Amino acid sequence: MSSAVRIAAHAKVNLFLRILARETSGFHQIETAFALLDLADELVVRRIESGVTLEIDGPDLGPSEDNLAVRAARAVLEATGNRFGVAVKLTKRIPVRAGLGGGSSDAAAALHAVNALAGHAVPRQELLHFATRLGADVAFFTAGAPLALAWGRGERHFRVPAPPSCPALIAVPPPAMQVATPDAYAWWDEQNRTPASRGPVTLDADALSTWGSIGRLGGNDFEPVVFAKYPELRALYERLAETGPIWVRLCGSGSAVAAVYKKESERDDAKQRLGTTRQELIATATRATPPSPPETISS
After folding, report:
1. Is residue 294 one of the residues assigned to a domain?
2. Distance of CA 60 to the CA centre of its chain
3. Is the Cβ–Cβ distance between 34 and 150 less than 8 Å?
4. CATH code of the domain containing 219
5. Are 54 and 103 found together in one domain?
6. 42, 71, 189, 197: which sits with the fewest CB atoms below 10 Å from its CB?
7. Boundary (domain end) residue, out of 93, 124, 159
8. Domain that holds residue 214
């Protein structure tokens, strides 16, 4: 049985995002499609005698007790009888509060890593149950699909074939424009006090088979409300759209903006044109294949 594993925790983008209704519980029903990026955090998880420790190489993420990766690790340890503990080293590369799902992806990676250290004692369906309890997006990352349709609160999803991998560029605004997801939903509620009649969206394999067809699926319902609060973010979106991508969207509830290009040279030209004076730019690519499983490393 392994004593240490390494696993990548990939970022995601929402290819489109529709907010359908607000439940009496305060949660919102959505329709969306998640797609993985090559951009990823890294977790190295080692067996220790007991407990869960967290070391972070990157920005301050707050108390360890509240970290989703820690909560995920504890869920698997408890399910397997707490026969050992784990030390988690998390290297952050995915920007925080950017709509890229970094925290949720870290949690999914922790589920798989700790389960690997436990000899895969927890069945896949139980892992997915843990994921849903941790957060809506965690289920998508745990399932391991490079592309999936999602609905409900985002926790229900259906895997579909991903289009070919394409170069992508993530534009991350300054910290002053970071958006907390609860705030974004509150802004949407303020502008949509009366539920609107939403027409159906026809989704089939053809609609998601190419980036050109994905670009015609519709937008992100967070864009109008988030851009109204942060005109500079709208300007960033427009600057990115002017670089000739085949798809461009606000990432989730923000604050990053993502674009997909036909060729690496087009993405690299866009990066050079935009520069890094007013935003951080991350060159990456969309994924057409599932993430790799945990890799055994020497302890």
Report:
1. no
2. 19
3. yes
4. 3.30.70.890
5. yes
6. 197
7. 159
8. 167-285
Residues 155 and 173 in one domain: no
The CA distance from 54 to 151, in Å, is 32
Q: 172-224: per-residue pLDDT in tens?
A: 999 989 898 889 999 998 888 765 556 556 667 788 888 988 888 878 999 99
Q: Would you say 146 and 35 are in contact if contact means Cβ atoms under 8 Å apart?
A: yes
* pLDDT tens, position by position, 83-135: 999 999 999 999 999 999 999 999 999 999 999 999 999 999 999 999 999 98
Read off the tokens for 112.
Answer: 């798989």
Q: Is residue 8 part of a domain?
A: yes
Out of 12, 41, 106, 221, which one is annotated catalytic? 12
108, 124, 159 — which closes off a domain? 159
Q: Is residue 44 part of a domain?
A: yes
Structure token pair of residue 237: 């979106």
130-142 residue pLDDT tens: 999 998 899 999 9
| pTM over the 0.85 mark | yes
User: Do 19 and 149 reside in the same domain of the chain?
Assistant: yes
For residue 156, count CB atoms less than 10 angstroms from its CB and return exposed for 0-12, middle for 13-18, buried for 19 or more: middle
Among residues 60, 92, 106, 137, which one is catalytic?
Answer: 137
Cα–Cα dist 47/84, whole Å: 7
Work out the number of other CB atoms within 10 angstroms of the CB of residue 230: 17
CA distances for 83 relative to 47, 101, 138, 167, 243, angstroms: 10, 30, 25, 43, 54
Annotation marks residue 41 as catalytic: no
Q: Catalytic: 229?
A: no
Query: Is the residue at 233 inside a domain?
Result: yes
Counting the structural domains of the chain, the total is 2
Residue 272 φ then ψ, to 5°: -65, -40
- In this structure, the answer to whether residues 98 and 57 fall within a common structural domain is yes
Calculate what percentage of the chain has a pLDDT beyond 70: 94
